[in-house]
Amino acid sequence: MRRSLAGVALAVTSMVALSFLIPLAALVMSLVKEQGVTAAEQQAAALAPVLTLTTDPAALRESAASLDAAERLVVHLPYDGAPSPSRAPAALLERAQRGRESISQEIPDGWICLQPVVLADNRVAVIENFVPEAELTRGVTESWVVMAFLAVGLIAGSVLVADRLGAKVVRSSRRLAQASHALGRGDLETRVEPMGPRELRDAGVAFNAMAHRMTELLAVERELVADLSHRLRTPLTALHLASERMAGTPESARVEAAVAQLEEELRAIIAAARTPLAVGPMGQGMLGTEAAPGSPATAPRGEVAEVVGRRTAFWSVLAQQQDRCCALDLTQEPTAVALSDDDIAAVVDALIGNVFRHTGPGTPLAVRVVRTAQAVELVVEDGGPGIPEPDLALSRGSSTGSTGLGLDIAHRAAGATGGSVRIDTGPLGGARITVVFALAGQPPSGRRQRISRRRPLRLRRRPPRPSR
Length: 468
Known about the structure:
Elements: H1 2-53, H2 57-66, E1 73-76, H3 90-99, E2 103-107, E3 110-118, E4 124-132, H4 133-136, H5 140-184, H6 198-231, H7 233-245, H8 250-274, E5 302-303, H9 304-321, E6 326-331, E7 336-337, H10 341-358, E8 365-371, E9 375-382, H11 390-393, H12 405-416, E10 420-425, E11 431-438, E12 452-456
Parallel strand pairs: 6-8
Antiparallel strand pairs: 1-4, 2-3, 3-4, 5-7, 6-12, 8-9, 9-11, 10-11
Helix pairs in contact: 1-2, 1-5, 5-6, 6-8, 7-8, 9-10, 10-12
């Protein structure tokens, strides 16, 4: 911006300076020439009264010397036998004598002034005054140089002022941009000092108000999460009592495991809600705090295939009860991504949970984990009615009959690794959701052979205790 403002000032000031400098230079040259011609005419006219009184050459030379024009004034007498040295053309001199006409005209070497004077015997003498070219341009070059220096100084001053004004605006804009980036990275304590033009000061005040309001809203939201989590402890206690009454039955172990897992999730939510307020991309978990950037010791790292296998085994119990065919295809290549196991498990639970929530019993389900050159793809597809508006489904709270929370969790998790989410129709005839996670670190060198196994889950009557 500073360069642009300086360029604009340079262009505008240069145009203004040239628009005044060129006519002024021409005017100076014209004035100097006019002054030289006028002075020559006045000197010739001043010598005319002397010539009417006397024609003595000595007296005429003395009078010319008193006018500071002894070398340029020449008197042409009508009865002088020897011709006087003259710069005037013969035609002009004859015209002045015969026509008794005062002549002031430019000639190749300068300017000539001819002043006729009628003597006592009615003869005509001519006073010649020659002005050389140097006299007609004396001081013009110096005047032009002075005007050029003034114009350059004016242009330099305007550019300097524009640069200083631009620096002030740029400094304010840069600080506001830095504060916006810091807020985007999760530093909710960042603020700006309003400075610069009035518009930028207003923007700074608005930014501070927005950051303060955001902090307040996040604090209120965390309090609500903690409060709701505490309220869920009461029904959890009732579920514990119910599972104790069911002790010894085949369903007691499954119910007890589900209740224990739910209680563990609630404790994690409450702990996260009580941590210092921070905002950032997914790091240690969906409910945890963000890991310090650039610290490998604390950077999250989870195996997608391993977590998907555990969570799909957990959901297989419900699939068995609803008579669903659940197929699982896991790659045996490394599938490490920059997400914690809890984050990956949240994505798997959200996608598989959507299948159970939006399709009827008996609808088939398939889960695949595929390793590519630089990414890991988690594919969940079903044989249900599908998703009529995939783009709208990715907008949380916009799809009909759904909050869109599950897809939003998947979308944020994929985005945290630099991946994406795609929705289309799969071979089973229903929706196919593909979550692409970028691999953690650099892709391995060399080409690996992909070894996978595709098998339907073996559903057992007594499910294993689910683990996170």
